[in-house]
Amino acid sequence: MNAPLAPAAGTETIDLPGNVVTAARLHPLRRLLRRPSAAIALAVIVAFVGIAIFAPWISPYDPVATDFAAVRKAPSAAHWLGTDEIGRDVLSRVIFGSRASLLAGVVSVLISLAIGVPLGLLAGYAGGIIDMLISRMTDALLACPFLILAIALAAFLGPSLENAMIAIGISATPAFIRLARGTTLAVKAEEYILAARAIGNPPWRVALRHVLPNIVPPLLVQATLAIAAAVIAEASLSFLGLGQQPPEPSWGSMLNTAKNYIDNAPWMALWPGLSIFLLVLSFNLVGDGLRDALDPRHA
C-alpha cells in the first residue's frame, strides 16, 4: 500500500471529505494570475475561444457571402474592418477564421501528446534497446526543421485542415518525446519511485501511477507553447494552400489573398495578421507564466 506523501514544510493542510489537499497545490494558478502579462494573455485567449464558439451569433455577415457592390471597401459603419477582393466582410472572416487556428492549435498538440508522451515515458522508464530505438527515431525527426516537416507531410497527405492538423501534430511529436523521456529519467531516480518498486509494484503501475503524474507540469508548459507554434504553422500551411481550403476562412489564406492588395486595401492583411500576433503572443506569455508558476522553487 502506498504511503501518502507528507505535506511540504511551510504549507497549510486543508481537510476535505475523503481527501487531503495541501495549500501548495492551490498556489500555481494564483501565482499565474498574479503576473499581469500572463493574466492579460489568458484573458485574450479566453476571448478568442469565446469568439470561436459563438462565431455564428456574433458575426455580422456570412463569412463566405460575396457582395460585388462592396469590393475592397475601407472600414465603415456597414463593414467595421472593411471588405476583401470579392466583397466579403473581413470582420466576419476573422471571427470564423479563429475557429481554424484554435482548432488546429489544440488538436495538433493533442495528437503530439497522445503519441509523444507514451513513447517518451516508455523510453525513459524501460531504457535499453527500447530507449535507443525511440531516441534515434526522435533525433532523426528533430534533424528536420518543424515547419519544413509539417509542409512536407501536409503536401503528402493533401490540402485540408484535417490533414494540416495531422501534419503539425506529427511534426511536433519529437519535442514531446524528448521532454517526456528526460523528465522520466529524472523522476525515475527519486526515492519514492525506488520505494514503490521495492514493495513489489509492477513496472507499468509505477510508470503510470507515480512517474506520469510527476512529469505533467513540464509537459503542460510545453503544450501551451506548442499551441502557439501550431497556430503559426496552420497559418503558414493555409497561406501556402495546404491548410483550410477556400472559401472557408482562415487567417493564413486571408493573408495569402491580401498580399496582392497590400497597397490598395491594407486592412485585408492588417486584421488577420494582428489576430495571429495576439493569439500566438498570448499563448507564449501564458506558457512562460505557467513555467514559473509550476516551478516548485517559486512555491
Q: From the alpha-carbon coordinates, what is the Rg to the nearest angstrom?
A: 23 Å
Task: Give the H and E element order.
Answer: EEHHHHHHHHHHHH
User: What is the beta-strand fraction?
Assistant: under 5%
Give the overall shape, derived from the CA principal axes. elongated
- Number-wise, the strands total 2
* CATH top-level class: Mainly Alpha
Measure the end-to-end span: 29 Å
Instruction: Compute the average pLDDT.
Output: 88
List unreliable stretches of 5+ residues: 1-26
- How are strands sequenced across the largest beta sheet? 1-2
Biggest β-sheet: count, sense, barrel? 2 strands, antiparallel
Task: Write a concise synopsis of the structure shown.
By secondary structure, the chain is mainly alpha-helical. The protein contains twelve helices and two strands.
Q: Describe it for me?
A:
There is one protein chain. This protein has 299 residues and is mainly α. The chain has a single domain (41-298), classed as Orthogonal Bundle (MetI-like fold), CATH 1.10.3720. It contains 12 helices and 2 strands. It has a two-stranded antiparallel sheet with strand order 1-2. A hairpin with a 2-residue loop joins strand 1 (13-16) and strand 2 (19-22). Helix 2 (36-53) packs across helix 12 (267-293), helix 4 (90-126) packs parallel to helix 12 (267-293) and helix 10 (216-239) packs parallel to helix 11 (251-258). The longest helix is centred in the middle third of the chain and has 37 residues, at 90-126. The two termini are 29 Å apart.
